[in-house]
């Protein structure tokens, strides 16, 4: 955090609940949206509201299945999924470019959410947004406080309407009582808009990923027989990966195995055609350390575009928690860890860094990588965030005659 919050009345937040607007709870990959929500729910009752994607749905079987599932979830309303956490889906009619349908979506969303909040019996609550597009609901639900936890440069994501998303992001930034930004670049952007903003870098599920360095951890069965050395990656194989770089690496070292664990969300035809590339597809989050167990080195092969340069890659902290050597392209965030990972600025340098990492013969370096993130648990991050929120809420209520509505 960029400031040290002073402790407030410990009972203040205890009377509150959280309406949390996040990514698809059932998505294949676990994001900071999921991690923060789970830890918040350990402290406060929380309604997790699935929000439609920023990009319009495509006519694919996957998108159509998701659309039908979300319609069913909307009709069902909130259901308990974890202690103190309920889940529902924000109603959304597709074809959002229609002004009429946009108005219908907004009215329907506000109506149903107010109804669900009444059903849960909540009178005092905070609206917590992790994505910008439901920001039109900020201050329309009777909340006492609005948080915008910004984890990405959303307008730079592939396949979105850049200008429309930028307007949503700016509007929510201005509406929020408190903004959190996960990278220094996003922090500066939000401050330029006059927001009350605090730096909140990602946490890591350290104990889970540290199991990858434990000899007692058995490799995932499909990976156990792969030939070494293994260059590994887990996460969505998306448009933000440098496919030209990956093809160069795999072709340059045909005796190495390149293992990708995660859903393919980009064209991977050329990668799939190479005999030393393994695309394992999406795997359960809890199983990732068993896949990482076979990695000889982990990679962050990103394109250096606006989205990546403004990001704080959660994967970097997860890799470091495994203790495995890490090779990454140079970005503002990865450069901060240059003391314990290899940084490459060209295809040739990336290959040379992989060679060096594979020849590492110093167990203390693995421990140093783990030590770099050992104190950065999600629990600690959320506790810091809540301290800032509690301070801001106390200041806001100090000039407000009534807490509930």
Could you give the topology of this structure?
Elements: E1 17-22, H1 32-41, E2 46-50, H2 61-76, E3 79-82, E4 85-89, H3 99-120, E5 125-129, E6 145-150, H4 162-175, E7 178-181, H5 184-192, E8 197-199, H6 206-210, H7 221-224, E9 230-234, H8 243-252, E10 257-261, H9 269-272, E11 277-281, H10 288-292, E12 297-300, H11 306-309, H12 314-322, E13 326-329, H13 332-335, E14 342-344, H14 347-358, H15 363-373, H16 378-397
Parallel strand pairs: 1-2, 1-5, 2-4, 5-6, 6-7, 7-8, 9-10, 9-12, 10-11, 12-13, 13-14
Antiparallel strand pairs: 3-4
Helix pairs in contact: 1-16, 12-15
Walk me through what this model shows:
The protein has an eight-stranded mixed β-sheet, sandwiched between helices. A six-stranded parallel β-sheet has the order 11-10-9-12-13-14, with helices on both faces. With 405 residues, the chain is α/β, with parallel strands linked by helices. It is built from 16 helices and 14 strands. It has two domains: 13-203 and 377-397, Rossmann fold (3-Layer(aba) Sandwich), CATH 3.40.50; 206-373, 3-Layer(aba) Sandwich (Rossmann fold), CATH 3.40.50.2000. Helix 1 crosses helix 16 and helix 12 (314-322) packs across helix 15. Helices cover 39% and strands 16% of the residues. It has helices at 32-41, 61-76, 99-120, 162-175, 184-192, 206-210, 221-224, 243-252, 269-272, 288-292, 306-309, 314-322, 332-335, 347-358, 363-373, 378-397, and strands at 17-22, 46-50, 79-82, 85-89, 125-129, 145-150, 178-181, 197-199, 230-234, 257-261, 277-281, 297-300, 326-329, 342-344. Residues 1-9 and 400-405 have low confidence and may be disordered.
